[in-house]
Amino acid sequence: MTTKKFDPASNIQSLKQFGEFGGVNPSITDSSTFTFMTAETMQDTFHGEAEGCFLYARHWNPSNKFLADALAAMEGTESGWVMGSGMAAITTVFLQLCNAGDHIVSSITTYGGTYAFLKNYLPKFNIDVTFVDITDLNAVEKAIRPTTKMVYTETMTNPLLQISDVPALSGITQRHGIQLVVDNTFTPMIFSPFLLGADIVVYSMTKYINGKNDAVAGAICASNQFVLDISDVNDGTAMLLGPALDPLRSSSILKNLHTLHIRMKQHSKNGMHLAERFKEIGLKYNYPGMPDHPQHELMKGMMNEEYGFGGMIAIDMETPERAAALMESMQFKNVGYHAVSLGYFKTLFSNSGKSTSSEVEESVQLEMGMSPGLVRFSVGLDNDIEATFQLIKESLKGF
Protein backbone atom coordinates (compact mmCIF):
# COMPACT_ATOMS: atom_id res chain seq x y z
CA MET A 1 0.00 0.00 0.00
CA THR A 2 1.31 3.45 -0.88
CA THR A 3 2.26 5.69 2.03
CA LYS A 4 2.38 8.85 -0.08
CA LYS A 5 -0.87 10.73 -0.70
CA PHE A 6 -1.93 10.21 -4.28
CA ASP A 7 -4.40 12.56 -5.94
CA PRO A 8 -5.79 11.13 -9.20
CA ALA A 9 -7.49 14.41 -10.18
CA SER A 10 -4.35 16.50 -9.70
CA ASN A 11 -2.36 14.01 -11.76
CA ILE A 12 -4.78 14.41 -14.66
CA GLN A 13 -4.80 18.19 -14.32
CA SER A 14 -1.02 18.34 -14.38
CA LEU A 15 -0.93 16.94 -17.93
CA LYS A 16 -0.29 19.49 -20.65
CA GLN A 17 -2.46 18.40 -23.55
CA PHE A 18 -2.93 21.17 -26.09
CA GLY A 19 -4.71 21.13 -29.42
CA GLU A 20 -2.29 21.11 -32.34
CA PHE A 21 -3.40 24.59 -33.36
CA GLY A 22 -3.72 26.13 -29.91
CA GLY A 23 -7.11 24.72 -28.94
CA VAL A 24 -7.66 24.11 -25.22
CA ASN A 25 -8.94 20.65 -26.19
CA PRO A 26 -6.72 18.31 -28.22
CA SER A 27 -7.85 18.13 -31.82
CA ILE A 28 -9.93 15.12 -32.86
CA THR A 29 -8.11 12.72 -35.15
CA ASP A 30 -10.11 12.38 -38.36
CA SER A 31 -7.78 9.94 -40.08
CA SER A 32 -7.63 6.17 -40.10
CA THR A 33 -4.09 6.09 -41.49
CA PHE A 34 -1.03 8.32 -41.16
CA THR A 35 1.76 9.50 -43.43
CA PHE A 36 5.50 8.99 -43.05
CA MET A 37 8.32 11.12 -44.38
CA THR A 38 10.60 8.12 -44.83
CA ALA A 39 10.19 4.41 -45.44
CA GLU A 40 12.53 3.70 -42.54
CA THR A 41 10.26 5.49 -40.06
CA MET A 42 7.27 3.46 -41.25
CA GLN A 43 9.22 0.24 -40.77
CA ASP A 44 10.31 1.32 -37.28
CA THR A 45 6.70 2.15 -36.38
CA PHE A 46 5.57 -1.32 -37.45
CA HIS A 47 8.12 -2.71 -35.00
CA GLY A 48 7.10 -0.34 -32.19
CA GLU A 49 10.38 1.55 -32.35
CA ALA A 50 9.30 5.02 -33.52
CA GLU A 51 8.01 6.95 -30.54
CA GLY A 52 5.40 9.60 -31.33
CA CYS A 53 4.54 8.17 -34.73
CA PHE A 54 1.13 6.79 -35.65
CA LEU A 55 0.58 3.97 -38.08
CA TYR A 56 -3.11 3.07 -38.33
CA ALA A 57 -6.05 4.01 -36.10
CA ARG A 58 -6.69 0.42 -35.02
CA HIS A 59 -3.16 0.49 -33.58
CA TRP A 60 -2.88 4.02 -32.18
CA ASN A 61 -4.16 7.47 -33.03
CA PRO A 62 -3.53 10.83 -31.34
CA SER A 63 -7.02 11.17 -29.81
CA ASN A 64 -6.82 7.77 -28.16
CA LYS A 65 -3.28 8.45 -26.98
CA PHE A 66 -4.38 11.66 -25.24
CA LEU A 67 -7.10 9.78 -23.38
CA ALA A 68 -4.83 6.83 -22.56
CA ASP A 69 -2.18 9.16 -21.15
CA ALA A 70 -4.76 10.90 -18.95
CA LEU A 71 -6.04 7.57 -17.61
CA ALA A 72 -2.50 6.39 -16.87
CA ALA A 73 -1.93 9.61 -14.94
CA MET A 74 -5.14 8.99 -12.98
CA GLU A 75 -4.08 5.44 -12.09
CA GLY A 76 -0.36 6.05 -11.57
CA THR A 77 0.60 3.51 -14.23
CA GLU A 78 3.25 3.88 -16.91
CA SER A 79 0.82 3.55 -19.78
CA GLY A 80 -2.74 2.95 -20.89
CA TRP A 81 -4.78 1.70 -23.82
CA VAL A 82 -8.37 2.57 -24.73
CA MET A 83 -10.85 0.48 -26.69
CA GLY A 84 -14.43 0.08 -27.79
CA SER A 85 -15.97 -1.41 -24.61
CA GLY A 86 -15.24 -2.51 -21.08
CA MET A 87 -15.60 -6.14 -22.14
CA ALA A 88 -13.04 -5.54 -24.86
CA ALA A 89 -10.59 -4.34 -22.21
CA ILE A 90 -11.29 -7.28 -19.90
CA THR A 91 -11.15 -9.97 -22.59
CA THR A 92 -8.01 -8.48 -24.14
CA VAL A 93 -6.20 -8.91 -20.82
CA PHE A 94 -7.40 -12.51 -20.40
CA LEU A 95 -6.43 -13.51 -23.93
CA GLN A 96 -3.07 -11.71 -23.81
CA LEU A 97 -1.95 -13.32 -20.57
CA CYS A 98 -3.38 -16.82 -21.06
CA ASN A 99 -2.75 -19.61 -23.54
CA ALA A 100 -4.37 -23.02 -23.93
CA GLY A 101 -3.84 -25.04 -20.77
CA ASP A 102 -3.57 -22.01 -18.49
CA HIS A 103 -5.72 -21.23 -15.46
CA ILE A 104 -7.39 -18.16 -13.93
CA VAL A 105 -8.61 -17.58 -10.37
CA SER A 106 -11.56 -15.18 -10.37
CA SER A 107 -13.94 -13.68 -7.88
CA ILE A 108 -17.25 -15.50 -8.23
CA THR A 109 -19.01 -12.19 -7.63
CA THR A 110 -18.34 -10.25 -10.78
CA TYR A 111 -20.12 -8.56 -13.67
CA GLY A 112 -22.35 -11.03 -15.53
CA GLY A 113 -20.65 -10.51 -18.88
CA THR A 114 -17.24 -11.19 -17.35
CA TYR A 115 -18.60 -14.29 -15.59
CA ALA A 116 -20.07 -15.57 -18.86
CA PHE A 117 -16.78 -15.06 -20.72
CA LEU A 118 -14.83 -16.89 -18.03
CA LYS A 119 -17.36 -19.69 -17.53
CA ASN A 120 -18.71 -20.26 -21.03
CA TYR A 121 -16.28 -18.83 -23.58
CA LEU A 122 -12.74 -19.51 -22.36
CA PRO A 123 -13.25 -23.32 -22.22
CA LYS A 124 -13.22 -23.21 -26.05
CA PHE A 125 -9.53 -22.32 -25.74
CA ASN A 126 -8.84 -24.87 -22.98
CA ILE A 127 -8.39 -22.10 -20.41
CA ASP A 128 -9.71 -23.17 -17.02
CA VAL A 129 -11.22 -20.88 -14.36
CA THR A 130 -11.75 -21.40 -10.64
CA PHE A 131 -14.30 -19.08 -9.01
CA VAL A 132 -13.77 -18.17 -5.36
CA ASP A 133 -15.11 -15.89 -2.67
CA ILE A 134 -12.59 -13.09 -3.16
CA THR A 135 -12.92 -12.00 0.48
CA ASP A 136 -11.61 -15.44 1.58
CA LEU A 137 -7.86 -15.04 1.08
CA ASN A 138 -7.17 -18.66 2.03
CA ALA A 139 -9.56 -19.83 -0.68
CA VAL A 140 -7.79 -17.60 -3.21
CA GLU A 141 -4.38 -19.01 -2.36
CA LYS A 142 -5.60 -22.63 -2.33
CA ALA A 143 -7.11 -22.20 -5.79
CA ILE A 144 -3.78 -21.25 -7.38
CA ARG A 145 -2.17 -23.96 -9.52
CA PRO A 146 1.18 -24.22 -11.33
CA THR A 147 -0.70 -23.21 -14.51
CA THR A 148 -2.41 -20.15 -12.96
CA LYS A 149 -1.61 -16.91 -14.78
CA MET A 150 -3.69 -14.39 -12.84
CA VAL A 151 -6.09 -13.57 -10.06
CA TYR A 152 -8.98 -11.44 -11.31
CA THR A 153 -11.33 -9.35 -9.21
CA GLU A 154 -13.27 -6.11 -9.00
CA THR A 155 -12.25 -3.58 -6.35
CA MET A 156 -15.92 -3.28 -5.37
CA THR A 157 -17.70 -6.36 -6.65
CA ASN A 158 -20.81 -6.33 -8.80
CA PRO A 159 -23.49 -6.50 -7.43
CA LEU A 160 -22.74 -7.54 -3.84
CA LEU A 161 -20.45 -4.55 -3.21
CA GLN A 162 -17.75 -6.61 -1.51
CA ILE A 163 -14.37 -4.91 -1.15
CA SER A 164 -11.35 -6.80 -2.46
CA ASP A 165 -8.24 -6.60 -0.27
CA VAL A 166 -5.95 -5.55 -3.10
CA PRO A 167 -2.73 -5.33 -1.03
CA ALA A 168 -3.29 -8.80 0.43
CA LEU A 169 -4.20 -10.26 -2.97
CA SER A 170 -1.08 -8.64 -4.39
CA GLY A 171 1.00 -10.36 -1.74
CA ILE A 172 -0.47 -13.70 -2.82
CA THR A 173 0.08 -13.14 -6.53
CA GLN A 174 3.62 -11.90 -6.02
CA ARG A 175 4.49 -15.00 -4.01
CA HIS A 176 3.27 -17.15 -6.87
CA GLY A 177 4.75 -15.03 -9.65
CA ILE A 178 1.39 -14.31 -11.32
CA GLN A 179 -0.58 -11.20 -12.26
CA LEU A 180 -3.26 -9.41 -10.25
CA VAL A 181 -5.88 -7.87 -12.55
CA VAL A 182 -8.45 -5.52 -11.02
CA ASP A 183 -11.59 -4.03 -12.55
CA ASN A 184 -12.08 -0.59 -10.95
CA THR A 185 -15.23 0.41 -12.86
CA PHE A 186 -17.34 1.03 -9.73
CA THR A 187 -14.72 3.11 -7.92
CA PRO A 188 -12.55 5.34 -10.14
CA MET A 189 -10.49 7.80 -8.06
CA ILE A 190 -11.89 6.26 -4.86
CA PHE A 191 -9.37 3.43 -5.23
CA SER A 192 -6.01 3.41 -6.98
CA PRO A 193 -5.57 -0.37 -7.45
CA PHE A 194 -2.19 -0.17 -9.18
CA LEU A 195 -0.69 1.73 -6.25
CA LEU A 196 -2.23 -0.85 -3.91
CA GLY A 197 -0.44 -3.67 -5.72
CA ALA A 198 -2.46 -4.59 -8.82
CA ASP A 199 -0.47 -5.26 -12.00
CA ILE A 200 -3.23 -4.32 -14.46
CA VAL A 201 -6.33 -2.16 -13.98
CA VAL A 202 -9.30 -2.34 -16.33
CA TYR A 203 -12.34 -0.12 -16.76
CA SER A 204 -15.63 0.12 -18.49
CA MET A 205 -15.42 3.82 -19.28
CA THR A 206 -19.08 3.64 -20.27
CA LYS A 207 -19.88 4.10 -16.59
CA TYR A 208 -18.48 6.72 -14.19
CA ILE A 209 -15.48 7.82 -16.25
CA ASN A 210 -17.63 9.08 -19.11
CA GLY A 211 -20.67 9.63 -16.92
CA LYS A 212 -23.18 10.44 -19.67
CA ASN A 213 -24.32 7.03 -20.91
CA ASP A 214 -23.80 8.22 -24.48
CA ALA A 215 -20.77 6.07 -25.32
CA VAL A 216 -19.46 2.54 -24.84
CA ALA A 217 -15.73 2.34 -24.14
CA GLY A 218 -13.10 0.53 -22.10
CA ALA A 219 -9.55 1.01 -20.87
CA ILE A 220 -6.49 -0.87 -19.66
CA CYS A 221 -3.94 0.82 -17.39
CA ALA A 222 -0.67 -1.07 -17.03
CA SER A 223 3.07 -1.07 -17.65
CA ASN A 224 4.65 0.21 -20.84
CA GLN A 225 5.62 -3.36 -21.67
CA PHE A 226 2.10 -4.72 -21.36
CA VAL A 227 0.70 -1.97 -23.59
CA LEU A 228 3.41 -2.68 -26.13
CA ASP A 229 2.55 -6.37 -25.94
CA ILE A 230 -1.20 -5.95 -26.57
CA SER A 231 -0.54 -3.48 -29.42
CA ASP A 232 2.17 -5.53 -31.15
CA VAL A 233 1.35 -5.94 -34.85
CA ASN A 234 2.41 -9.60 -34.85
CA ASP A 235 0.77 -11.07 -31.76
CA GLY A 236 -0.85 -8.28 -29.75
CA THR A 237 -4.40 -9.15 -28.73
CA ALA A 238 -5.72 -5.59 -28.96
CA MET A 239 -4.07 -5.02 -32.34
CA LEU A 240 -5.20 -8.29 -33.90
CA LEU A 241 -8.74 -8.52 -32.51
CA GLY A 242 -9.36 -4.87 -33.36
CA PRO A 243 -11.44 -3.42 -30.48
CA ALA A 244 -10.60 0.15 -31.52
CA LEU A 245 -12.26 3.17 -29.90
CA ASP A 246 -13.58 5.84 -32.23
CA PRO A 247 -11.52 9.06 -31.90
CA LEU A 248 -14.64 11.23 -31.62
CA ARG A 249 -15.82 9.22 -28.60
CA SER A 250 -12.31 9.25 -27.19
CA SER A 251 -12.18 13.03 -27.36
CA SER A 252 -15.58 13.32 -25.68
CA ILE A 253 -14.59 10.97 -22.85
CA LEU A 254 -11.37 12.90 -22.25
CA LYS A 255 -13.34 16.09 -21.67
CA ASN A 256 -15.71 14.29 -19.29
CA LEU A 257 -12.77 12.80 -17.40
CA HIS A 258 -11.82 16.26 -16.17
CA THR A 259 -15.04 16.49 -14.13
CA LEU A 260 -14.83 12.95 -12.72
CA HIS A 261 -13.44 14.08 -9.35
CA ILE A 262 -16.40 16.43 -8.82
CA ARG A 263 -18.92 13.84 -9.92
CA MET A 264 -17.50 11.04 -7.75
CA LYS A 265 -17.72 13.23 -4.65
CA GLN A 266 -21.39 13.99 -5.33
CA HIS A 267 -22.24 10.37 -6.15
CA SER A 268 -20.60 9.36 -2.85
CA LYS A 269 -22.33 12.09 -0.86
CA ASN A 270 -25.71 11.01 -2.22
CA GLY A 271 -24.98 7.32 -1.72
CA MET A 272 -24.09 7.89 1.93
CA HIS A 273 -27.24 9.95 2.50
CA LEU A 274 -29.46 7.19 1.13
CA ALA A 275 -27.63 4.55 3.17
CA GLU A 276 -28.14 6.50 6.38
CA ARG A 277 -31.82 7.07 5.63
CA PHE A 278 -32.35 3.42 4.62
CA LYS A 279 -30.91 2.38 7.96
CA GLU A 280 -33.21 4.78 9.82
CA ILE A 281 -36.33 3.24 8.29
CA GLY A 282 -35.12 -0.33 8.83
CA LEU A 283 -34.64 -1.21 5.17
CA LYS A 284 -32.28 -4.11 4.43
CA TYR A 285 -29.49 -2.36 2.53
CA ASN A 286 -25.85 -2.82 1.55
CA TYR A 287 -23.42 0.11 1.36
CA PRO A 288 -19.64 -0.11 2.00
CA GLY A 289 -19.60 3.36 3.54
CA MET A 290 -21.57 2.24 6.58
CA PRO A 291 -19.83 0.68 9.62
CA ASP A 292 -22.07 -2.40 9.42
CA HIS A 293 -20.59 -3.40 6.05
CA PRO A 294 -18.20 -6.39 6.48
CA GLN A 295 -15.34 -4.67 4.63
CA HIS A 296 -15.98 -1.10 5.82
CA GLU A 297 -12.69 -0.79 7.70
CA LEU A 298 -10.80 -2.45 4.87
CA MET A 299 -12.19 0.10 2.43
CA LYS A 300 -11.27 2.98 4.73
CA GLY A 301 -7.69 1.71 4.80
CA MET A 302 -7.37 1.48 1.01
CA MET A 303 -9.41 4.39 -0.35
CA ASN A 304 -8.51 7.90 -1.43
CA GLU A 305 -10.64 9.37 1.32
CA GLU A 306 -11.75 12.66 -0.25
CA TYR A 307 -13.77 10.86 -2.94
CA GLY A 308 -16.04 9.05 -0.50
CA PHE A 309 -17.46 5.53 -0.56
CA GLY A 310 -19.08 5.65 -3.98
CA GLY A 311 -22.54 5.84 -5.47
CA MET A 312 -23.38 2.13 -5.56
CA ILE A 313 -25.91 0.87 -3.02
CA ALA A 314 -28.25 -2.13 -2.92
CA ILE A 315 -31.45 -3.06 -1.08
CA ASP A 316 -33.07 -6.46 -0.65
CA MET A 317 -36.71 -6.76 -1.69
CA GLU A 318 -36.54 -10.57 -1.19
CA THR A 319 -38.27 -11.61 -4.43
CA PRO A 320 -38.01 -10.54 -8.08
CA GLU A 321 -41.71 -9.70 -8.08
CA ARG A 322 -41.38 -7.27 -5.17
CA ALA A 323 -38.26 -5.80 -6.75
CA ALA A 324 -40.08 -5.27 -10.05
CA ALA A 325 -43.04 -3.58 -8.38
CA LEU A 326 -40.77 -1.22 -6.43
CA MET A 327 -38.69 -0.30 -9.47
CA GLU A 328 -41.77 0.42 -11.57
CA SER A 329 -43.12 2.64 -8.80
CA MET A 330 -39.81 4.48 -8.41
CA GLN A 331 -39.60 5.16 -12.11
CA PHE A 332 -43.20 6.45 -12.14
CA LYS A 333 -42.37 8.78 -9.22
CA ASN A 334 -39.23 10.02 -11.04
CA VAL A 335 -36.65 8.63 -8.61
CA GLY A 336 -34.68 7.68 -11.69
CA TYR A 337 -34.69 5.12 -14.47
CA HIS A 338 -35.26 1.38 -14.43
CA ALA A 339 -32.19 0.61 -16.52
CA VAL A 340 -28.91 -1.26 -16.42
CA SER A 341 -25.50 0.41 -16.26
CA LEU A 342 -24.26 2.95 -13.74
CA GLY A 343 -22.41 6.21 -13.25
CA TYR A 344 -25.11 8.31 -14.91
CA PHE A 345 -26.25 11.70 -13.63
CA LYS A 346 -29.73 10.22 -13.04
CA THR A 347 -30.21 7.39 -10.56
CA LEU A 348 -30.43 3.98 -12.27
CA PHE A 349 -31.77 0.82 -10.67
CA SER A 350 -32.22 -2.80 -11.71
CA ASN A 351 -32.82 -6.24 -10.23
CA SER A 352 -29.32 -7.70 -10.66
CA GLY A 353 -30.33 -11.35 -10.76
CA LYS A 354 -32.66 -10.67 -13.68
CA SER A 355 -30.39 -8.23 -15.52
CA THR A 356 -26.66 -7.57 -15.20
CA SER A 357 -26.04 -10.82 -13.32
CA SER A 358 -28.54 -12.94 -15.23
CA GLU A 359 -25.65 -14.83 -16.89
CA VAL A 360 -24.86 -16.27 -13.46
CA GLU A 361 -26.88 -19.42 -12.80
CA GLU A 362 -29.55 -18.99 -10.11
CA SER A 363 -27.93 -21.70 -8.01
CA VAL A 364 -24.64 -19.80 -8.11
CA GLN A 365 -26.41 -16.54 -7.27
CA LEU A 366 -27.78 -18.17 -4.14
CA GLU A 367 -24.38 -19.71 -3.34
CA MET A 368 -22.70 -16.32 -3.43
CA GLY A 369 -25.41 -14.77 -1.27
CA MET A 370 -27.25 -12.75 -3.93
CA SER A 371 -30.90 -12.29 -3.01
CA PRO A 372 -33.39 -12.85 -5.86
CA GLY A 373 -34.88 -9.50 -4.88
CA LEU A 374 -31.65 -7.50 -4.83
CA VAL A 375 -32.13 -4.03 -6.32
CA ARG A 376 -28.86 -2.32 -7.24
CA PHE A 377 -28.87 1.48 -7.30
CA SER A 378 -26.39 3.67 -9.10
CA VAL A 379 -27.15 6.87 -7.20
CA GLY A 380 -27.19 9.95 -9.40
CA LEU A 381 -26.03 13.52 -9.01
CA ASP A 382 -29.29 14.75 -7.47
CA ASN A 383 -28.92 18.19 -5.92
CA ASP A 384 -31.60 17.40 -3.31
CA ILE A 385 -31.00 13.77 -2.40
CA GLU A 386 -33.38 13.99 0.56
CA ALA A 387 -36.21 14.71 -1.84
CA THR A 388 -35.16 11.62 -3.79
CA PHE A 389 -35.24 9.58 -0.60
CA GLN A 390 -38.75 10.75 0.14
CA LEU A 391 -39.84 9.53 -3.29
CA ILE A 392 -38.22 6.14 -2.61
CA LYS A 393 -39.95 6.03 0.77
CA GLU A 394 -43.29 6.69 -0.89
CA SER A 395 -42.58 3.92 -3.39
CA LEU A 396 -41.91 1.51 -0.51
CA LYS A 397 -45.37 1.98 0.99
CA GLY A 398 -47.30 -1.26 0.96
CA PHE A 399 -44.25 -3.53 0.99
Q: Overview of this structure, please?
A:
By secondary structure, the protein is α/β, with parallel strands linked by helices. The protein folds into two domains: 8-257, Type I PLP-dependent aspartate aminotransferase-like (Major domain) (Aspartate Aminotransferase, domain 2, 3-Layer(aba) Sandwich), CATH 3.40.640.10; 265-395, Aspartate Aminotransferase, domain 1 (Alpha-Beta Complex). The protein is 39% helix and 14% strand. Strand 4, helix 7 and strand 5 (179-183) form a beta-alpha-beta unit. Helix 3 (62-75) runs parallel beside helix 11. It starts with 7 loop residues before the first helix and ends with a helix.
Helix content: 25-40%
The main sheet comes to: 7 strands, mixed
User: Which stretches are low in confidence, meaning pLDDT under 50 for 5 or more residues running?
Assistant: none
Compressed to H and E, one letter per element, the order equals HHHEHEHEHEHEHEEHHHHEHEHEEHEH
Mean pLDDT: 94
* Topology, number of strands: 12
> What distance separates the N and C termini?
44 Å
Relative strand content: 5-15%
Based on secondary structure, the structural category is: alpha/beta
SSE diagram, text form:
Layout: H1 8-13, H2 39-46, H3 62-75, E1 79-83, H4 86-97, E2 103-107, H5 112-121, E3 128-132, H6 137-143, E4 148-154, H7 166-176, E5 179-183, H8 193-196, E6 200-204, E7 218-222, H9 224-230, H10 237-241, H11 247-257, H12 260-280, E8 285-286, H13 296-302, E9 312-316, H14 320-332, E10 337-338, E11 348-351, H15 362-368, E12 374-378, H16 385-395
Parallel strand pairs: 2-3, 2-4, 4-5, 5-6, 10-11
Antiparallel strand pairs: 1-7, 6-7, 8-9, 9-12, 11-12
Helix pairs in contact: 3-11
